[in-house]
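Input C-alpha cells:
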C-alpha cells in the first residue's frame, strides 16, 4: 500500500495536548476525538471572551505539558509571548462568521498562521511540530508573496484559515489521514506564492519568461508549485519531515501538494467537477448551484468513514482546496463584497497594463469597474464556479451548508447589484 494510504494513517499514541485530551488508537476513536475537539476549539466558535480565555488557558496547559522536556522553559516563554497577539486576534472578532474586515498587520498574520498549524497538528494527532520549522516556513512563504491587491499573503492567510475550518469545524479531517490534513493547509498557505497579479492568459499572450519556464497550461499554478517545492526542500522549512512523517508519507505529501495546487487552475474547473461526480455517488450540480443551503441538502454525508481510497482522498483534498480558495465567498456579505471587489480591481489594473501595451485584453470577461459590471461578473462567478464547488463540499461535509447558505445570500446580493438594486443586509447565519 502506498504511503499515506488508509492503512498507514498516523494513529499512534501522541503527547497529550490539553486542548484535545486524546490518545488515538483507532480510526473510530479518532473520529470521536475530532468531534469532541471541535466542541472545545473556541477558535471556531465566535468571539466571546469566555471562549478566548478557554482557548488560551488550554494552549498554556498544552504548552506547559510540552515544556516539561524543555528544562529552561524556553518553549513556554515563547508560547506565552504569542499570547497578546492571539488575544488581540480573538478580541478583534476574528472568526469565519465575523462581519469585520481583515486588518491585521503582517506580524499578526504570521503568528496566526503559525498558531493554525500548531492547532491542526494537535487536532490530527501529529506528535511534534518544531516551532523553529513552522516559523521559518511561514516567514519564507510570506516573503515570496507579492503585494498584489488580491493575490497577496493576506489572501493566503484567508485561504489557510478556510482550509483549517473545513478540516476542523466542518469535519473534513474525519475522512483523511493526518498527512492529508497537514498537506491541505500547507498547500493553502502556498497555493498562490509568487503570483505576479496578472493572469495565465496575459503570460501566454506576451510569451513571457514565466510561460517559457512553465508552459502555457496552468502557467501560474506550475510556478506556484515550483516555488512551494523549493521552499519545502530547504532543510529549515521541511515541515513534513520535521513533523515526523515517514519518507513515504513525505513523498505522498509532495504528490498531493502538486495535485491540489494544479487543481486550483480554473481553466480545468469543469474537468475537476466531472471527475468528482464520477467518483462520488451523490450528484452535485456541475453548473447552477441553486440549492437554498437549508432544506434541500442531506443531513448525512455521502461518505462513510473508511470509504475513501487514495484517489478519493486526493479528490476530497483537492475539492476542499478549491472551496478554501473561494472561502471568502462563504463569508458575511461585507467581507465577501470586499474580496470580490479586490479581485476585480486587480484584474482591472492588469487590463490597463495590457491596454498600455496595445494588447487585446485577455480578461474580456472582467468589467470596466462599474458596480453593475463588477456585480455581474461576481454573479456569474458564483453561479458557474463557486456555488457548485460549495455544493460538492456540502455533499461530503453537510455542516458546511451554513457556508453554502451564506454564499447563496451573497449570490443574491450580487444579482441585486447587477440589476441596479441595493444589496440587502445578510443575517449572520
Ligand atoms: Zn488563491
Amino acid at each position: 500500500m502506498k504511503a499515506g494510504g488508509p492503512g498507514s494513517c498516523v494513529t499512534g499514541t501522541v503527547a497529550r495536548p490539553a486542548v484535545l485530551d486524546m490518545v488515538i488508537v483507532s480510526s473510530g476513536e479518532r473520529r470521536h476525538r475530532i468531534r469532541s475537539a471541535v466542541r472545545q476549539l473556541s477558535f471556531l466558535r465566535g468571539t466571546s471572551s469566555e471562549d478566548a480565555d478557554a482557548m488560551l488557558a488550554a494552549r498554556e496547559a498544552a504548552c506547559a505539558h510540552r515544556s516539561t522536556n524543555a528544562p529552561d522553559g524556553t518553549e513556554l516563554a515563547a508560547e506565552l509571548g504569542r499570547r497578546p497577539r492571539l488575544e488581540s486576534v480573538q478580541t478583534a472578532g476574528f472568526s469565519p462568521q465575523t462581519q469585520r474586515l481583515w486588518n491585521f498587520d503582517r506580524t499578526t498574520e504570521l503568528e496566526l498562521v503559525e498558531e493554525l498549524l500548531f492547532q491542526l497538528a494537535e487536532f490530527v494527532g501529529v506528535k511534534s511540530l518544531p516551532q523553529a520549522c513552522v516559523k521559518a516556513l511561514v516567514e519564507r512563504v510570506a516573503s515570496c508573496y507579492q503585494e498584489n491587491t488580491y493575490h497577496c499573503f493576506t489572501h493566503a492567510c484567508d485561504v489557510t484559515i478556510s482550509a483549517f475550518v473545513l478540516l476542523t469545524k466542518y469535519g473534513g479531517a474525519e475522512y483523511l489521514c493526518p498527512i492529508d490534513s497537514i498537506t491541505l493547509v500547507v498547500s493553502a498557505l502556498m497555493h498562490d506564492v509568487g503570483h505576479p497579479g496578472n493572469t495565465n492568459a496575459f503570460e501566454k499572450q506576451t510569451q513571457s519568461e514565466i510561460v517559457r519556464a512553465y508552459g502555457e497550461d496552468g502557467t501560474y499554478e506550475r510556478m506556484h508549485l515550483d516555488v512551494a517545492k523549493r521552499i519545502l526542500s530547504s532543510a529549515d522549512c521541511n515541515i513534513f519531515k520535521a513533523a515526523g512523517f515517514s519518507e513515504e508519507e513525505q513523498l505522498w505529501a509532495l504528490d498531493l501538494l502538486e495535485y491540489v495546487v494544479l487543481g486550483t487552475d480554473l481553466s480545468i474547473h469543469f474537468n475537476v467537477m466531472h471527475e468528482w461526480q464520477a467518483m462520488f455517488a451523490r450528484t452535485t450540480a456541475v453548473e447552477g448551484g441553486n440549492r437554498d443551503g437549508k432544506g434541500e441538502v442531506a443531513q448525512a454525508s455521502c461518505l462513510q468513514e473508511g470509504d475513501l481510497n487514495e484517489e478519493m482522498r486526493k479528490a476530497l483534498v483537492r475539492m476542499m482546496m478549491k472551496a478554501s480558495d473561494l472561502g471568502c465567498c462563504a463569508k458575511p456579505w461585507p467581507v465577501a463584497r470586499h474580496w470580490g471587489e479586490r479581485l476585480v480591481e486587480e484584474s482591472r489594473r492588469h487590463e490597463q497594463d495590457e491596454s498600455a501595451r496595445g494588447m487585446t485584453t485577455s480578461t474580456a470577461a472582467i468589467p470596466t469597474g462599474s458596480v453593475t459590471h463588477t456585480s455581474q461578473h461576481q454573479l456569474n462567478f458564483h453561479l458557474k464556479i463557486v456555488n457548485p464547488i460549495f455544493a460538492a463540499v456540502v455533499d461530503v461535509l453537510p455542516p458546511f451548508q451554513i457556508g453554502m447558505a451564506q454564499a447563496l445570500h451573497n449570490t443574491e446580493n450580487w444579482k441585486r447589484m447587477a440589476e441596479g438594486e441595493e444589496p440587502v443586509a445578510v443575517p449572520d447565519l
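The chain is about 60% helix and 0% strand. The mean pLDDT is 75.
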